[in-house]
Amino acid sequence: MSATDPRSEHPSEGFDGTPQSQPGLTSETNPTPDHGESSYVGAGKLSGRRALITGGDSGIGRAVAIAFAREGADVAIVHLPEEEEDAASTAQLITEAGRQALLIPGDVCDEEFCRRAVELTVSELGGIDILIPNAAYQKSRDSLETLETAEFARVFETNLYSLLWFVKYALPHLEAGASIIVTSSIQAAEPSAGLIDYAMTKAAQVAFVKAMAEELGPRGIRVNAVAPGPIWTPLIPATDWPDKVAEFGQETPLGRPGQPAELAPAYVLLASDDGSYMSGGVIPVTGGRPF
What we know:
The chain is of the alpha/beta class.
């Protein structure tokens, strides 16, 4: 079987820039992102493990949830109440893989909710072996002068505060062999002026990963990040880029945006024993853009 040309593996054009309200829904995203529903085949790499994924209802989170379930893990998904439709669809794919799905609706900007979500996961799944702080918020910014405090506060609370809270409350339940995998971004290395507050949080996440890898390594807990480039998810039409979406991802060396399914194997690697000596690292999945 010959190798697939990565330039033509997925669409490079035809993306609908019709604005969506945050957080964006899969049913309103055209074309529908590929989360690996019909392509990901597991090999038992995460058999018997328990994963908690924030923002696991759609986009990258859904792709990771599908892959983890097909690799043998039970999966808890944190999602906003307005994402119930997407979350239910993801849960169905998890149960079809023969694994337990737990849906936890709420807002990760609320510290007490984050604590309860961790405790509920431990109670219902019996523990946590893999933590994926993946929930994110981004909006296109005209300038720093017009950036409202409430807006950048929401970005920091979603992308950074919740990361700290989930790790903080999960740590007492994590044993040697556990894995924490943060979803960072190419924006951590190549920040865009129009995403200044989002880029700041993504760079801070990389610092967090390196610091926590130092702290938790002696306990046998690995901490890493995946840094996506332009990936086609509901977050893109919800970012308020109506004039940019049509050419989204075409600036990459591969000439197209990535699909969520193309990130899932990186998370499986970092979560599984195949990545047993990987900690403090960042895996770029960027279509060739340098990180």
